[in-house]
Design brief:
alpha+beta; Umud Fragment, subunit A; 2 domains; eight-stranded antiparallel beta sheet; 10 helices; elongated
């Protein structure tokens, strides 16, 4: 998924910053060896901006580490294995944090900020705070599977938004007023002290921290909720990114292209259940569409060639719509776009401009076409006929027939990055609109 590219960049960047800060601290520790016993070790002398970057990196690096590991486990072993491993790891961190670190935190007069904690302790605290959410999600997953449903990313995001939102709302409704009242009582009890004296008074600091403290679940829920909500709203109603996994749309889209899909092009749909609540525009011939094929729960991307009521005929790599042959213009091999394939199974390819409703788009076809015997389809109402631009290497409506309107996800409108393999570097030379 393209979001992993961003996560990996953040992970690498924050990791490098943390490594640099560790190196500086080790250098300072060597200088501190000659200092008087009991003197607090000096911190590296950073500029204000660099200090903010270092503090941010030390706070976010453990989270990035967890997210990257989660993704690797998910892609390698699947969601069920991920949940089992996550339950064991976060559960172990929860127990370890409770036994080792929690007693130390209780003894602290002034709580230590996250950026001042060792990375190991901070990572364990992140994992421990995630344990309740993992258990709840694991139970939810188990119930959904038993009920015959399969989880997908929109549902996962929805569940996370609901869980973090409910945790924050629960705190606001039931506990916030109690904390405010407790803090006021502490202030009243120590009203004889000035503000400077309060900060230096150990009894006041302990009482104030106890009165104002929030649980770890509440703290992390309030932190994650706005981020999850923004991501959920953007990808559900505005734009969703996708990665091209196959060559069925060559030469228009290549394996490793990262594309942006307009989620409201064909109407506003409720996330998860995909029920349309508002019409905006109708799909047009030539649109590059992301959708769910009949009987599939995977995203596909193809070109829409047939509207409801159209009669589609395809023979010897020639497309006919309602009896009219669709114009094709052969492109000279010297002018073929990047990614075009010279050879195909048992023959050679040619690249042409195909004109749907007068608008050209690239199409690749093989000299030994799989469509020597013509086929004809009549598109029913409320359905669409999809074909890949790589006509002889595409699983499309010629195999699984028509795509219902409710299965449309959105219209692909731009390529914003190309990254074929994580072992290589991403590039932006293919960035542009999709024709």
């Amino acid at each position: 998924m393209n979001i992993i590219f961003i996560l990996q960049l953040v992970f690498i960047g924050t990791g490098l910053v943390c490594a640099y800060d560790w190196y500086k601290q080790q250098a300072m520790a060597q200088l501190d060896k000659g200092s008087q016993g009991g003197e607090k070790k000096a911190k590296p002398n950073y500029s204000p901006l660099i200090a903010q970057v270092v503090d941010f990196s030390k706070s976010i690096f453990p989270l990035m580490l967890v997210m990257v590991v989660v993704y690797k486990v998910f892609t390698s072993f699947g969601l069920d294995a991920l949940l089992i491993i996550a339950s064991l790891v976060t559960g172990g961190c929860f127990v370890f944090d409770w036994i080792v670190y929690r007693p130390k935190r209780k003894e602290q007069i002034i709580p230590v900020d996250d950026e001042d904690l060792p990375l190991v302790e901070l990572t364990i605290r992140y994992c421990a705070s995630a344990f309740p959410f993992v258990i709840i999600f694991f139970a939810f997953r188990f119930a959904m599977v038993n009920a015959g449903y399969e989880l997908d990313l929109p549902l996962i995001l929805f569940v996370l938004v609901v869980l973090t939102g409910c945790a924050g709302l629960y705190d606001v409704v039931l506990h916030r007023s109690k904390r405010v009242k407790a803090v006021e009582e502490v202030d009243q009890k120590f009203s004889h002290l000035s503000d400077d004296e309060k900060i230096k008074n150990e009894d006041f600091v302990i009482a104030y921290n106890q009165a104002a403290s929030e649980t770890a679940i509440t703290q992390y829920s309030k932190s994650f909720f706005p981020i999850l909500l923004i991501v959920f709203v953007l990808r559900s109603f505005v734009v969703e990114p996708f990665q091209i996994p196959s060559g069925s749309m060559i030469p228009t889209l290549l394996v490793g292209d990262y594309i942006a899909v307009n989620k409201f092009a064909y109407g506003i749909r409720l996330p998860v259940i995909r029920k349309k609540v508002m019409d905006i525009a109708e799909p047009k011939r030539g649109d590059v569409v992301v959708f769910f094929p009949p009987g599939e729960d995977r995203y596909f991307i193809k070109r829409l060639v047939g509207l409801p009521g159209d009669v589609i005929h395809y023979e010897k790599n020639q497309l006919y719509i309602n009896g009219d042959a669709i114009e094709q213009k052969v492109i000279n091999p010297s002018e073929w776009p990047e990614g075009s394939e010279r050879r195909c199974s048992g023959g050679t390819n040619s690249v042409v401009n195909e004109f749907l409703d007068g608008k050209p788009h690239l199409m690749q076809k093989c000299s030994l076409s799989r469509s020597h015997v013509g086929q004809t389809w009549k598109v029913p109402d409320g359905h669409y006929f999809m074909m890949g631009d790589n006509r002889d290497n595409s699983s499309d409506s010629r195999e699984w027939k028509y795509v219902p309107e409710e299965n449309l996800v959105g219209k692909a409108f731009a390529v914003w990055m190309h990254w074929q393999a994580y072992t290589g570097l991403p590039s932006f030379h293919r960035a542009g609109t999709i024709e």
